[in-house]
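This part of the workshop introduces the protein records we will be handling. Each record describes a single protein and holds just a pair of labelled lines. Instead of coordinates, the fold is spelled out as a row of discrete tokens. To make this concrete, we reproduce a full record directly below:
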Amino acid sequence: MKLKTVIQLSIKELWSLWRDPAMLILIVYVFTLNIYTAATAVPESLHNAPIAFVDHDKSQLSRRVIDAFVSPYFLTPEIIENSEVNPSLDTGKFTFVVTIPPGFERDARKGLAPDVQVNVDATRISQAFTGNGYISQILTEEVSTYLQGYKTNMTYPVALILRARFNPALESAWFGSVMELISAVTMIAIILSGAALIREKERGTIEHLLAMPVSIGEIMLSKILATSVVVWIATLLSVYFVIQGALSVPINGDVWLFMVAVALQLFAVSSMGIFMATVARSMPQFGLLLILVLLPLQLLSGATTPRESMPEFIQNTMLLMPNTHFVVASQGVLYRGAGLSVVYPQLIALFAIGCIFYFIALKRFKSTIGSMA
């Protein structure tokens, strides 16, 4: 295998990608706007939730309760009629509708514990999941303060002191942006490497390459190299300009150590993309195959949910996939400031899995593309 030939073929792949505006737009979007929106659009905490009240009591206590729901947790509450509750929830106008019953203040003064109905639009799961707790706490505090005439400072037998490491302010954007970048590396690498081969097959240019004095291994390696260079540069720019720049996410570890893990991950998943392209006969088939492969890789790698919460069989099986080791290494470096002495097992595993995927893809590539010669 000649290095000069591989480089020349890689340059050809880069020119082919440059002439594909759809792919260029996809790369730019995934590594910029997609990361930014994923980090900021869906906060994990309650923020500006639309809420309405049906006030049957119209007392001083009910007005005090309504006035207690303020930003940034809730939008300014609206007062609606009982007949508007179901239509408002059906159209998604409000996430929460609280119904205060008649005689609410009277019954509260008598200690009768009046019922307050809370209607929740559970389709907005990010707000509905935490909103019930906020509403219950605010109602309890306001009623208790009103009845006692002063705000009670509760004392507990144990003083709990919380210290959050690596993310002291508990900013969800710090986690979401990095995890979205990790997912983007895998997705774009598989798409670019697989699309490069399928594009050659559909246009008939693969036969031209096979007629030239180049080996099948050189053709495959050039596609992996071109894909890796593009995604590696896009990842580096995204770290500096999107994550650290636009989102102001602090990176605790060595960015270049993370980029070493990215390079090893690209080697593994680009080989996977080549293998999938040899199985698929067209781009639509490749897209369907991508869904079947990419979703389990992303969901079971530990990027979205901890691996410890998964069945033991799934945990052990996913150790054979590069994403699992890439997520562990990336989180260790970017979040916790881990060095090479900590993440070297994951880097070795990535390299070993990448070599296995490469030789499996090369064998499949020779058996399918070599028959065209």
Notes: The CA atoms of residues 46 and 321 lie 35 Å apart. DSSP finds 15 helices and four strands in the chain.
